[in-house]
Protein 1
Amino acid sequence: MTHVCHAIGCDKTVPPKKLFCLPHWRMTPARIQALIWETYKPGQENRKDPTLRYLVVQAMAVAAVATKEKRLDEEPEKFVLRRIWQILPRMTDDDIAFVGRVYPTLTEADLEKLRVTRDNRAMGAGGDGT
């Protein structure tokens, strides 16, 4: 089983365990490479259950490579925040704190907005859980 490199615009096939093809992996900043391996759980590609932290770091990696290749049509932070927004309802306070540690441009106020938004979504539009 294979899948396509996650770099925007790349169509190279890679093993399911790999995020990128080798050229794109080499473009990934070392700090983000380390975070990818730190958050990767063996077998997640087979179980289809990557951790939320892995998904955040994956978005950071895709944004970093796309920025280097000038393939991103928005600010990298906006790209990553859109990805976070998609998984926000499932994120715990610890996951949000992790985002703050790995994405240092986010302020504590930004992280609090994520928590409040997540909690409001959980309560429903009416604010009463319905």
Protein 2
Amino acid sequence: MGLFDSRGRSLPLAVAVLLAGGAVTASATWAMGGRTFGPGIVRGVGPGPGVGGMMGWRGGAATQCGAPAIRDQSVRFAARDSSGMMGGAMMRLMPMRAVIRAGRATIELVNPGSRPHELLVFPLASQAWAGQRAVGAEDRVDEAASLGEVVPVCTQDAAIDGTAPGNVARVALDLRPGRYEVLCNLPGHYRRGMWAVLTVR
């Protein structure tokens, strides 16, 4: 479901602010590259670097996985690849910040990008910053503290490491209140910016 302006044009980022019991929650629907991701329960998000600027986000494969409906609460992240006019590449998980309730939750990754991606969930200390984990010799972070990793929902080539373009992956976790960092740990992806913050309340 997207939102539209007075002329019926789809908005790139539609944010509906809901006031319930004095709490402010933002429900956002992302519409990028002709595809809509959401709704997810998010707070304080923006389109991220490169949208409408010098960096162009690629959408190599439309997500065609017929994933079954999720019964518990869930949060969805979309993997985004980019190509820059100045050379090099950037990657993002969108939204970059999300908020859910404590308890059982399904973390979902949709991959409309041009290359495989994965998603792992790590606790994030109260004073720690996301995106600052040490990257090892294989251009990955240490996975010892990971609480779980998404698993592809639809069949894909077994030789692919991570979630193939066009596929969807999920993991169900019991999460306590706190901050978590979700990230792609394929070689070089975290270093290029593929991480996001999940707050559980």
Protein 3
Amino acid sequence: MAVVSMVKAQLPAHGSRKVPSFNFRKAMAMSAGWCLERSSKWLMIYWWDDSEVAQVSSAFLLTLLSVIAVLMLGKLMSVYQSPGWEHVAEDLLESIAVLVGLGWDHAFHICQITMLDYYHDEFKDDEPIKKLAFHAFSKALMALILCSLVAPAWVWYLLPAAKKPVEEES
């Protein structure tokens, strides 16, 4: 449905009808990505009873399918070089990025919760306040470690590439 909406958005306006706006196409593409991520998760949960394995398997499957889709989209764009298709391809690539990002985000989240529950159960503490405090402290510590690893790489590699003019990127 999202692909059809994006293609229709590239068609010229007829009379008083207006072409759907840029934000509508992006919203439809992002919604399609989210729906595909949820569908993949449900499919994997149907195959495996283990929630953690299902989430990680879903993320791997989505990554594999996304790589295939990007390669196919690249081939299509080299064959059909219409100016209207560039916007459609950009929207599809953004929805694929959201799809992969959501898949891995949910996989890491469920694994993080499982790990925290395991270590909390090792301490044999049944008070809900202590369990909540343990979860909050552990998540804050994991976020701090992740930011300390990702932020320098972002500053060294991604930020300079983003500051380059468009001509130099090729």
